[in-house]
Amino acid sequence: MSANAIHESLLRPPVLHILRAAGFQAARPAALDTVVDLTHRYIKRLASLAASHAVATHNELTLTLPDLRLAMQDLGTFGPQIGSMEEQCRDEEDLRGVDAFISWAKGENNREIRRIAGLAASEGEVVEIEASLREDFLTVLKKKHSKTGEESRYQGTVIGKPADEESLRVDGGPIESIEDWEAKLRARDLLIIVNPIRQSSSPPLSSVGSPLTDV
What we know:
Radius of gyration: 28 Å
Shape: extended
Distance between the termini: 76 Å
Order of helices and strands: HHHHHHHHH
Largest sheet: none
Structural class: mainly alpha
Strand content: under 5%
């Protein structure tokens, strides 16, 4: 199964929850696939723009909240809001779009979506002190299908924690690890690139006439 297929399969439950919270009681498979594909494309585009801003801002692929905000601003999520160039000219930061987005996300319009996802209390439910630590539906689903209730079953997969990196040793040769093999290949490729440059920079001696023979 390709990565896109896995990601779209993981997006189907959240999209179904959103449609249910919006009042839809049923959806045709073709319509559901279309909404899932649009959601997938939007999130992928948002991640790509955020990665570009991260590299341009602090020269690393560690995502920060300002990088995500710039990406969302590029996609037109915040509005009405002036552009960054106009902010610099006015020497003030316009947060109207950000405030409006936060109010929309935490407002009554999305209360049903948060309730269905397990992140908000239902009507009449007693709210505990640790209500902010509620688990989302995917975490609950993983614990339901795991006999031990631990994350070790899904470790190293797209829905689990990253696996611990272990060095792979190669026996029977001078190269003992994958890193050494990769470094040797890079050195060989660099030698292949440099040698033609040196050969082309020095003209062949046979094509140059000797001044002694011309006399």
